[in-house]
Amino acid sequence: MLDEAQEIEGWERFVRGLEERREAKIIVTGSSAKLLSSEFTTLLSGRRVEVRVTPLSFRKILKFKGISVKGIVELAENIDKIKRELVEMMNYGGFPDVVLNPEVRAELIHSYFDTIIVKDILGIILKGRRI
């Protein structure tokens, strides 16, 4: 298993070699836009299963928080909670850890921002340039 594989230069060729020789079953994980690069797609074409993990939907957030909206009665009974959760989602998003762990919310959001925006996106934009 290679976790955060995008951090290892040449990992794609290594994985393809192992797969072609049928030496191992390989699981590659990562959270970076680099994993979507054309080189990755070309080298492992037909040999991958992509699983995207997306933020929770508002309905899922309500379900995780134990707020029922199955019918008009539950909706009416829970309207204040629903409004409060909507504001929370609009302010903080739907990442599962952020939704379910409000005590570490700020730290998680900062970490996600640093990883996604600063390291991944800016890294791709500035690839090959010196800052």
Describe this structure in words.
- This is Putative AAA+ superfamily ATPase.
- Pfam families: AAA_14 (PF13173).
- InterPro entries: AAA_14 (IPR041682), P-loop_NTPase (IPR027417).
- The structure is a single chain.
- The chain is mostly helical and 131 residues long.
- It has two domains: 2-43, no CATH class; 58-125, no CATH class.
- 53% of the residues lie in helices and 3% in strands.
- The longest helix is centred in the last third of the chain and has 21 residues, at 105-125.
- The two termini are 33 Å apart.
Q: Helix and strand layout, with pairings?
A:
Blueprint: E1 2-3, H1 11-20, E2 28-29, H2 38-43, H3 58-64, H4 72-77, H5 79-92, H6 96-100, H7 105-125
Question: What can be said about this structure in brief?
Answer:
The protein is mostly helical. It is built from 7 helices and 2 strands; from the N terminus they run E-H-E-H-H-H-H-H-H.
